[in-house]
Structure formats: structure tokens, C-alpha cells
Design brief:
Elements: E1 7-9, H1 20-27, E2 29-33, H2 38-55, E3 59-62, E4 71-75, H3 82-90, H4 93-101, E5 106-116, E6 125-128, E7 136-137, E8 141-147, E9 157-160, E10 201-204, E11 211-215, E12 220-222, E13 231-239, E14 244-245, E15 272-274
Helix pairs in contact: 2-3
Amino acid sequence: MLPEVRSFTLDSSDTAPSGAAEALNGDGVVCLRRAFDDSWLSMIETGIADAVGGASADVDVVHRDGDEGSFSFSSGAWNSVEGFRSFIFDSRLPDLVWSLLNTTELVLFYDFLLIKEARSDTALTPWHQDHSYYPIDGVKVVNSWVALDDIPVESALRFLAGSHRAQTLYRAVDFDDPAAEYRHARTELPLPQIETDASEILVAPLMAGDMLVWWSYTLHCAPGNRLPSRRAAFSVNWVGDDVVYNAKPALDTYREASLQIGQPIICAKFPLVRGGETAMGRHE
């Protein structure tokens, strides 16, 4: 049995509990239990229906041979999907993240929806680190990952505890074929071999409404969904005040033509949400 990600149960406060930031900094990941109630999850579900119905320009549905179920994903849809936008800017999400990040500014990087339908057995997520895919420099980059369904151990994310600390950048992995070369191949180190039963691996079973937060350098993976129920999550990625653009090859989701190398990424596509005079959100 793998040890679980350290978790902290939230109350009505918009600030993460004492000890949560220490866990995040120590392990590279932390779980915030009961982060969002059913009303906010329903808001996201409304956004999913709109996104799949055509409101998002970037939706992919993949059905692999041999799987009963498909898996779907959408990226960077907050500007066109009202449900996603409302959750990102009007819930307590940015305040919770800001309380963990030790930054004077909090900038929205992008949102990401991932749905693994029942019996999408081969829809696994290989070991990788998020930062490998980004055209940015800096370490204050986190993913806030909200479970929309109960996610038991069998389909839960796994994390290599402490793998963020060295800030080593590893080569990006092609999710469709981990043995293939990723389309935006760069010169980073190849991923190390990770034993699937190693004692430093943490697993993250979740209830709907729980949220994981992890650093972009943290190595993580997830199995396919062999269960008879959906496994869905909505994640929002954020950057802090040390992040600048480096223009390295990356998907359009993470790029903006108007940005200059070495400058902060704050712009219309990556808006300032907390910490500045023009910050967006419910506290503006």
C-alpha cells in the first residue's frame, strides 16, 4: 500500500490551513479536502457541457482500441466557457492558491479539463513533470487540480515525493506514446526510471470537491480508468512573481506572440488575478 499525499481539511476560510504550505514545499504536492462544494462543482459541469457542445475551440475526445470508454480533454477554455471562467475568478480558488504560493502576484496560466470515462483502461498518464512543456522560467508555478468525481486509489494520481526540490528539468513525454519523441523536443535530461512500488511514491485518492496542488517540477503519473464510473478533474495552472517568458517550443496554449523573452507573462491571455492594481476576480 502506497502512502497517501498529506491532506488538510478546509473550513470556510479562503486561506489554506497551517501546515499545508509546508507539506507542499516538502513533498511537492498537498491535498486540500472539501475545497469546493456541490454548487461550484455544478458550475464546472455546466462549463463542461458548454465546452463539449462547441464553446471551447480546443476539445479532444479520444477512444482507444480495446477500451469501452473514451477520454476527453480541453485546454485554455476559460475565456470562452462561462462556467470555467466563473469558477476560476469567483470561487475561493485563487485565494487558496495564493495563500500557498508565497508570491506578491498570482497570474492565471491556463485551465485544463480531463475526463476519463468508465472503462477507459489504457488512458494512462505517464510519468512526467508539467514544467517540461512550458515556455517559461521560474519556480513559482503550480497546478490546482479539483476532483469532480470520487477518485479511489485504483485511478488516483501518483507523485514522486520531493522530486521538485532539485528543480531539474526533464524531457517532455508524448502522452500518446511515451516511447516516441515529443513534438516539441528539447534538450532536457531524460526521465529517470521510477519504480512503481517505491516508498517515496505518494498516492492521492480523492472525494469530489477535494483539490490537489503541486509544483510544476513535481514528477507524477496516473493509471487508466478501469472502474465502471467516470473519473474527471478540472485543473487550473498558476504562476507567481518570479516567472518570465523564454519562448521555447511549446503548444499554443502556453504561448503568446506579444510576450518578450525575459519579461513577466502577464497579458490578456495570462491575466493577473491577485496582487496588483488591475487584478481580476471577485475582490476587484
